[in-house]
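Cont'd.
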Amino acid sequence: GAVVSQHPSWVICKSGTSVKIECRSLDFQATTMFWYRQFPKQSLMLMATSNEGSKATYEQGVEKDKFLINHASLTLSTLTVTSAHPEDSSFYICSASPGSSSYEQYFGPGTRLTVT
Amino acid sequence: AQSVTQLDSQVPVFEEAPVELRCNYSSSVSVYLFWYVQYPNQGLQLLLKYLSGSTLVKGINGFEAEFNKSQTSFHLRKPSVHISDTAEYFCAVSEAEAGTALIFGKGTTLSVSS
């Protein structure tokens, strides 16, 4: 149980285009989802926290107009990288928490974004 | 706010040797502590967690960790490593409250050779 999927697992896009990454909780309802970014050989940095039906809370330094997060249902959150640039190339990982009373986070397998 | 320091960026060991990966944290509030493992180009897998109670926690794959509140540490140990343990290991902390985000350390690369 507690499986989180991400789609796509790997995407290449051209500079200036937008790309959407989906994060789904497959067998539980996720009240809260988190988006992290990981540069090569580095740690995961929290980008934003999203609660179903609410606006996402972004960490300091993360541009909310560039990284659009939507948590429209209890099983789906999306991250859209708008007007992508090569410096946005990274590994994006989402995690989902089953409920407001849960400390557990279940991680997706990640999406590798390459902007050319 | 919380922070995590993983004291070793790389730890090379020989197969069947014991290993300890060190983690220290700082926080002004009670915390939950976690260790995750990441294999190349994959997501994170939870090894073990400390929420409360016994300070010695056992996880998967023979790993264990000990919470030391006075030293604000949560070191990960394994008595005998295998080649397959080669991976990146992350220590993480969150507020002891449901629904809060994890703050990760910079990671430790464990390299096991024969």
